[in-house]
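Exercise 7. Given the encoded structure of a 144-residue chain, write a plausible sequence.
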């Protein structure tokens, strides 16, 4: 019993086959094609149904949003009307807090306003039970 470690003299004349055998690929593709041709009529078959028709309901508008502006001096404006003090603000916030759905309050604060004034407004929101608060800022100019 002998073992050859190198190429035999008869194998030296044979070249390496570089082509891919596509026969198994074609066989698999033909089987898949037949399976799809058989299953498509089953998928197309449907049960006759009468689907519900779409009905348009009139849009129910929610309560108007409230704009609250705070100047750098600490003055509070409710939709462009100046409020006398924090008690008046709290009363107005309590009045809108019970509405369903609750309107959103948008706070516009001056760039140079002290945090103390904004804190008083936020405290009034908490006491009144306002859930939707937005702080409005100016977007940066394009190109920066």
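Solution.
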């Amino acid at each position: 019993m002998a073992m050859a470690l190198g190429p035999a003299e008869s194998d030296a004349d044979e070249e390496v086959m570089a082509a891919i055998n596509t026969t198994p690929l074609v066989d698999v593709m033909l089987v898949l094609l037949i399976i799809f041709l058989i299953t498509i009529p089953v998928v197309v078959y449907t049960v006759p149904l009468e689907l519900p028709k779409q009905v348009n309901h009139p849009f129910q508008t929610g309560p108007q949003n409230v704009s609250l502006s705070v100047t750098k001096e600490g003055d509070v404006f409710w939709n462009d009307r100046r409020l006398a003090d924090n008690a008046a603000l709290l009363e107005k916030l309590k009045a809108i807090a019970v509405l369903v759905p609750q309107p959103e309050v948008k706070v516009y604060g001056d760039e140079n306003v002290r945090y103390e004034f904004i804190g008083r407004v936020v405290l009034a929101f908490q006491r009144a039970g306002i859930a939707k608060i937005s702080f409005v800022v100016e977007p940066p100019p394009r190109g920066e």
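Remark. The radius of gyration is 38 Å. Students should compare their own answers with the one above.
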